[in-house]
Design brief:
The mean pLDDT is 93. This protein has 62 residues and is mainly alpha-helical. It is elongated. Helix 1 packs across helix 3 (38-61). It starts with a helix and ends with a helix. The longest helix is centred in the C-terminal third of the chain and has 24 residues, at 38-61. The protein contains three helices and no strands.
Length: 62
């Protein structure tokens, strides 16, 4: 069950990152408008980037 929660959090934050990055507003403005803590945003951005790179490395190793 805990794994499902992690996947849902990852999916939620991936969507938040996508929406923010596709916005024409500055990140700081977009985050304030959506009541999202900037530290949380950047923490998740880093976490998901590392996850993508790790997945790529592992898939190339196969």
């Amino acid at each position: 069950m805990e794994r499902i929660t992690h996947v849902m959090s990852d999916m939620h934050w991936a969507l938040v990152l996508k929406e923010c990055n596709e916005s024409e507003r500055k990140k700081k403005e977009w985050l304030a408008q959506h009541n999202i803590n900037a530290k949380s945003f950047y923490k998740w951005q880093q976490k998901l980037r590392i996850q993508v790179v790790t997945d790529l490395i592992l898939s190339e190793a196969d």
